[in-house]
Design brief:
Length: about 375
């Protein structure tokens, strides 16, 4: 067996971060820490907005890197060039690719780029980042759709790629009763509940909130108890709230604001159907989480949501540009019984760790 590897990881956020990318990066680090092939992980976060919390034993999490752009570059140079030699550099955001490439080339080690979604569906604004990404030795992608769209601007050597979809810890979810306190908080008693989770970003608007609101008046005519829960926070909330008023559906929409991680599964359990007719999801992990709570789902056919339901095996896929198809899928989905589908094990933690093990071995073989 080869000597266990030392990995230097440059990332946007992870421990002390919030949202899907932070969660994914935490899972990557936890998986690496469980591998016998890995001796140590030095992770440099660009952002640490919240409390860091417990860390894996093999992890050195350099929060000093998050103080400023200068601090991040200095820490990358300190660990990448002047510190103990890493065996590989894992760059977990395309915007950090230039400094990762520099450290990798100066130390003569492979450089792997981890990509998530719309961050690489087009070339990044920085020409240096795009240039470095094209020179990565290996690409880890959260989904096939992300890798395919990246090909539009970046050459992709199929032999040096790995698809690493999100991991789900099934024991943290499961079918459960609707929490009474949340029913009361959002005034949902006696309601038929549709739900979409996601950040409400004015510059993105690709989660499917608008598409669901557009068909909501028709859904309400079918069943006046239908209520749409928009779970998440962001700067686009005011616009969506005004759209709710303009559509005259204020009595049938609830905005939860930010949902604490500890209550996330309880929020999913409120739903009769989780619907996400998105346009810009790199994968659609929230769909997997909803399924893990036994909630039927409707996913998009044109982005990573399709992969989250295994091309329709775990739930129907619809084109968000087709409101009639979306309406029909939602109506049909409201009658689907709750239960965790067996195929969801494709995304469980042991499978994620095994995929990570294979990907890391392939990169280390390039040394």
């Amino acid at each position: 067996m080869a000597q266990p590897a030392r990995i230097l990881m440059l990332l946007s956020d992870a421990f002390g971060g919030f949202g899907g990318i932070a969660q994914y990066n935490r899972d990557v680090i936890h998986a690496l820490a469980e591998l016998d092939e890995v001796d140590a992980i030095v992770a440099l976060p660009r952002l640490v907005p919240e409390v860091v919390g417990p860390l894996p034993a093999k992890l050195q999490f350099e929060t000093a890197a998050a103080r400023s752009a200068f601090s991040f570059v200095w820490q990358a140079l300190r660990h990448g060039i002047f510190g103990p030699k890493p065996d590989m550099i894992l760059c977990a955001h395309v915007n950090l690719a230039a400094i990762a490439w520099l450290c990798a080339r100066l130390r003569g080690v492979p450089f792997a780029l981890l990509v998530f979604g719309i961050d690489v569906w087009q070339a990044p604004p920085s020409r240096f980042a795009a240039w470095a990404a094209r020179r990565s030795d290996f690409i880890f992608s959260i989904s096939r759709v992300t890798l395919d769209r990246m090909r539009n601007w970046c050459p992709v050597n199929d032999a040096r790629t790995a698809i690493l979809p999100n991991a789900i810890r099934l024991d943290d979810f499961g079918v459960g009763a609707r929490p009474e306190d949340l029913l009361q908080r959002y005034n949902l008693v006696g309601r038929k509940i549709l739900m979409t989770f996601g950040r409400l970003h004015s510059k993105e608007r690709a989660k499917g909130f608008d598409e669901m609101l557009d068909i909501l008046p028709r859904l309400i005519r079918h069943d006046p108890s239908i209520t749409y829960v928009i779970a998440g926070t962001g700067d686009d909330r005011a616009r969506l709230e005004q759209k709710v008023v303009d559509l005259g559906v204020g009595d049938n929409v609830r905005f939860t604001g930010r949902v604490e991680e500890a209550r996330k599964a309880d929020h999913y359990r409120l739903a009769d159907l989780y619907a996400m007719p998105s346009r810009g999801e790199g994968f659609g992990f929230v769909i997997v989480e909803a399924l893990a709570c036994g909630v039927p789902v409707v996913a998009s056919s044109i982005d990573g949501g399709r992969e989250a339901v295994l091309d329709g095996q775990l739930g129907p896929i619809v084109d968000p540009n087709d409101p009639d198809a979306l309406y029909d899928a939602v109506i049909a989905g409201l009658d689907v019984p709750h239960g965790v589908p067996k195929g969801l094990s494709h995304f469980d933690w042991p499978n994620f760790r095994a995929r990570m093990q294979g990907a890391i071995a392939a990169v280390l073989a390039l040394r």
